[in-house]
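User: Second chain of the day. Same drill as before.
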Amino acid sequence: MERPVILEGPDGAGKSTLAASLARSLNREVFHSGGPPVNKLILEDKLDEVEQKFDTHVIDRVPHISEPIYSRVSVRRSFIPEFQLHDRLKRFDPIVVYCRLPQMSDMFKAIDRSKKPHKPSQHLEEVLKQYRAVVQDYDITMDLLSKSGVTVIMYAWTQMPVHKLVERLTCAG
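Assistant: Same format as last time:
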């Protein structure tokens, strides 16, 4: 079993673009986990679906990480406690590529503001209003995951070519 490769980070950090490039380099497909779940049952189904893709896909966001962050932005409780989601993720020994540019303003400008079927417009509005909090929450979460033993690789496309990231992933895998 190859280790799961997960791309995480705030909107505008370059995850989707990176996912396509990494998938080609790693001979995997891309799986986009979609927008926020609306109830616990949908979250559990999404967790199962994502986990089934771990061996064969580069995953663009996992609910194990993004659900608690975005639930805080939308001022609702996460349907499953964050520590349980993280413990569930750790069982798979993933490599998390944390996409984050040095300047928050560069990411904010790069956010795709087009309407998407899997993300309600209200969700995007909340993210835009609370963007600084989302980025700070991601920073804290990635630090906590790293300290708990999850392999987290910081990646900024402005500072590292994709082939260097592929080398790091290959060494970590």
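The chain has a mean pLDDT of 91.

User: Great, on to the next one.
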